[in-house]
Amino acid sequence: MSEWWTYSLTDFLLFSPETYARLFLRYNEAVWPGQLPVLAAGLLVLILGWRRHPLLPRAALTLLAFGWAWTGWAFHLQRYASINWAAVWFGAAFFVQAALLARTALLTSASADGRRGVPFGLGMTLLAVALLYPLLALLTGRPLAYGEIVGLAPDPTVLATLGILLMTVPSLRGLLLVLPLAWCATSGATLWAMDAPQAFILPIAGLLTLLLLRRR
Amino acid sequence: MRITPDRRRFLQGLGVLAATPWLPRATWAQGSASRRVIPSSGETIPAIGLGTWITFNVGDDRAAREECAAVMRAFFAGGGGMIDSSPMYGSSQAVVGDALAKLGPMPALFAADKVWISSGNAGPRQIEESRRYWAVPRFDLLQVHNLVSWQDHLKTLQAMKAAGELRYTGITTSEGRRHRDFEEVMRRETIDFIQVTYNPLDREVEERILPLAADRGIAVIVNRPFRQGALTRRLARQPLPGWAAEIGAASWAQALLKFTLAHPAVTVIIPATSRVAHVQENMAAANGPLPDATLRNRIAREVAALA
């Protein structure tokens, strides 16, 4: 691309905020009542984390693998790709992350972080925020039907992934962080270009995760 | 584009018109955007066209597609002709094609699209794919989008024109990019249209591009007349100045369009919108008086100060 410095983020925005929001509305309508068991599973992981249950790492990583794969297929490829040609690549990246998470859950050991430090607390917080993420729709003046659900939509799924990676010590944690952090930047930039008030959430979560894990 | 207070006043005015039995209700339906001449052929074309960047990229959202079809219906009813799209615009081409299928044959349609792919060899395939989305027998105008691989694509377009598969060729840029290369292509090649950004804040094209277009007999399409809505949103907080009445502008949007239309080199403006009321407002801007050079300078100064 020539004269790339003359482009701003908004030049890459192909759709209106309303079209993007309606994508989630129509998605939620299509998968209803699938949101309920997905949110229940998320709540179960939060409880396992709270109790520091030994099942936490494997259960959480397995559920996340399903969430990334489903989001890659049902959101990116089936829906987002209809308004953003880059979503085909997003879908592929989500499949890769799903495979990495599944491999970690099934073939390698992962344990809950034994220390109740700041990372664990932030992990629990991010997981809780991911579960409450659909409420953001209300804050932006839209009904709950526009809400983005963890395991079904990319942003809360990435938040939950960061949370779990802070709460557990899986092998190859660095590798597992690459795509979630890349999505934090991508989604943050997209939402910022749309003047969305929640644009800062993922970038800040990604930065905090990176800082806390680098300190260890 | 959200409704601004200024636009709201205009729309309320529309409501009053509609509710007044002694006024012809078909004022908008039978209006005609004033026409401009395409220098290379002498053909005339309505001065207000319709852009599809962002506004028509609604994917498979049925309700939004209906709204786009309604916008196109109002556009043609108001005497519109040129609709402009690009393979870069996501689902916009498919949405235009879907709306055309709903509306039925539109003899006034001037189908303008672009080729936007780095490989010159892949150009014909992309053009054919675009044509299928539109479901038109052929495009009236094809442009090389942002000068991407323009040497190869322009050869393709010129061959298509020679073979009768295309009526006009062109090149595009936006927001002032690659103006030097743009000028070079305008001087060296035979093209019918250029597409550039022009509005009271983005006036760089006035210096060289627009005079060169007039000199070379090239028609000019203007994109981003409202800076993607940012300009009208900022101006909405400001009262409409007294000069607006002199040129028959009932809103900032109309004042901005009249400013651009008043440049003698400009052929068509392609504001994009997803609202019927806005397309009607835009179409009406082509009617009535246009600002002279003195007033245009004043508009540019005041808009720059206010925005």
Strand content of chain B: 5-15%
Our count of helices of chain B gives 12
Measured by residues with Cβ under 8 Å of the partner chain's Cβ, the largest interface is: A-B, 18 and 20 residues
- Major sheet of chain B: size, sense and barrel closure? 8 strands, parallel
Mean pLDDT of chain A: 92
Helix-strand category of chain B: alpha/beta
Shape summary of chain A: globular
The radius of gyration over CA of chain B amounts to 19 Å
Largest beta-sheet characterization of chain A:
2 strands, antiparallel
The quaternary organization reads as: heterodimer
Query: Would you tell me the structural class of the helices and strands of chain A?
Result: mainly alpha
Question: Which stretches of chain B are poorly predicted, pLDDT < 50 over at least 5 residues?
Answer: 1-32
Helix content of chain A: 55-70%
Spatial sequence of strands, sheet with the most strands of chain A: 1-2
Instruction: State the shape of chain B.
Output: globular
Report the order of strands and helices of chain A. HHHHEHHHEHH
SS element count, helices of chain A:
9
Strand content of chain A: under 5%
Q: Give me the Rg of chain A, rounded.
A: 17 Å
Description:
- The complex is a heterodimer of chains A (216) and B (307).
- Chain A is mostly helical.
- Helices cover 66% and strands 3% of the residues of chain A.
- Chain A contains nine helices and two strands; from the N terminus they run ααααβαααβαα.
- Chain A has a two-stranded antiparallel ribbon.
- In chain A, α2 runs antiparallel to α3 (56-77), α3 packs antiparallel against α4 (87-107) and α4 runs antiparallel to α8 (173-193).
- Chain B is 42% helix and 14% strand.
- Chain B is built from twelve helices and ten strands.
- Chain B has helices at residues 5-18, 62-77, 92-103, 123-134, 150-162, 179-188, 209-216, 230-235, 243-246, 252-261, 276-284, 293-306, and strands spanning 35-37, 44-46, 50-51, 82-84, 110-115, 139-144, 166-172, 193-197, 219-223, 268-269.
- Chain B is globular, with a radius of gyration of 19 Å.
- Classes of the chains: A mainly alpha (216), B alpha/beta (307).
- The A-B interface holds A 2-3, 6, 10-11, 13-16, 19, 22-23, 26, 79, 82-85 and B 54-55, 57-61, 63-64, 88-91, 147, 175-178, 228, 274.
